[in-house]
Design brief:
It contains 10 helices and 9 strands. It is an alpha/beta fold. The protein has one domain (6-208): TIM Barrel (Alpha-Beta Barrel), CATH 3.20.20. The strands form 3 sheets. Strands 3-2-1-9 form a 4-stranded parallel sheet, sandwiched between helices. Strands 6-7-8 form a 3-stranded parallel sheet. A two-stranded parallel sheet has the order 4-5.
Length: 217
C-alpha cells in the first residue's frame, strides 16, 4: 500500500467524520472488525497500543486492508512507539497526552498527529507545535459546550473529542465544531465482537455515518 501523507489522511478523517477507536483484548479479530466497520462507512481505524501485539496488528491490518481502511495507532506516549507504529504502516498517530517529541516524529515521516489536550493552554500549545488535530480528552467531563467555548476565541483550532461520544451525543459534538469524532466502545461493541456479529457492527457503523452526513447537511 502506498504510504498516506498528512494532508490526504486529514482529508479522509474529516470526510469520514468517525475514527473507530479499537481497544481489543486480542489482535485476532482486528481484521474482521475493520472490514465490518468499513462496510458501514467507517473506514478510519485507530488501533491502540493497549491491544496485545499492537505493532504487529497494525502491520497486518495496513498490509491486508490496503486502501479500504486508513489504519492509525492510538494511546502513544512516546516518540519511539510512534516510530515503530509508523514503520509498521500507521497512517496517523494519536496520543492521550501532549508530547512534543511525538508530534515531531510523526511529521518527520509525513504522518498526521493528533495529540491530547484538555485545558486551553494545553490545546493551543499542541496547535502551535503543529498538531494536525487536537484530541480533547477526556471530553465526556465537559461536553460539546466546551468546544464552543474554546472555538469562540480560537476558531483556528481543529478539535476532536474522545470519551463520551455515542449515538446520542455525536450530532452535538459535530455541531459544536468537532472536525471528526473518536468513537470507542459505543461503536466497537465488545458484545458484537465476542459473538462475531459483523453484520450488526456494520449496521451500527452506518448509523454513525448517517449522523455525520445529517449534521453536515
Amino acid at each position: 500500500m502506498k504510504p498516506t501523507g498528512r494532508l490526504e489522511t486529514l482529508s479522509r478523517m474529516r470526510e469520514t467524520g468517525i475514527v473507530a477507536v479499537i481497544r481489543a483484548d486480542s489482535p485476532d479479530q482486528l481484521l474482521d472488525i475493520c472490514r465490518a466497520l468499513a462496510e458501514g462507512g467507517v473506514d478510519v481505524a485507530e488501533i491502540t497500543m493497549t491491544t496485545p501485539g499492537a505493532i504487529e496488528a497494525i502491520r497486518q491490518a495496513s498490509h491486508e486492508l490496503g486502501d479500504k481502511v486508513l489504519v492509525g495507532v492510538g494511546s502513544v506516549l512516546d516518540a519511539e512507539t510512534a516510530r515503530l507504529a509508523i514503520l509498521a504502516g500507521a497512517a496517523f498517530v494519536v496520543s492521550p497526552v501532549l508530547n512534543l517529541d511525538v508530534i515531531r516524529m510523526a511529521h518527520r515521516y509525513d504522518r498526521a498527529c493528533v495529540p491530547g489536550g484538555l485545558t486551553p493552554t494545553e490545546i493551543i500549545t499542541a496547535f502551535e507545535a503543529g498538531a494536525d488535530v487536537v484530541k480533547v480528552f477526556p471530553a465526556n467531563h465537559f461536553g460539546p459546550q466546551y468546544f464552543k467555548d474554546l472555538l469562540a476565541p480560537m476558531p483556528q483550532l481543529k478539535l476532536t473529542p474522545t470519551g463520551g461520544v455515542d449515538l446520542n451525543t455525536a450530532e452535538s459534538w459535530l455541531k459544536a465544531g468537532a472536525v471528526c469524532l473518536g468513537v470507542g466502545s459505543s461503536l466497537v461493541k465488545k458484545s458484537l465482537i465476542e459473538s462475531s456479529q459483523w453484520g450488526e457492527l456494520t449496521e451500527l457503523a452506518g448509523r454513525f455515518r448517517k449522523i455525520v452526513r445529517d449534521a453536515r447537511s
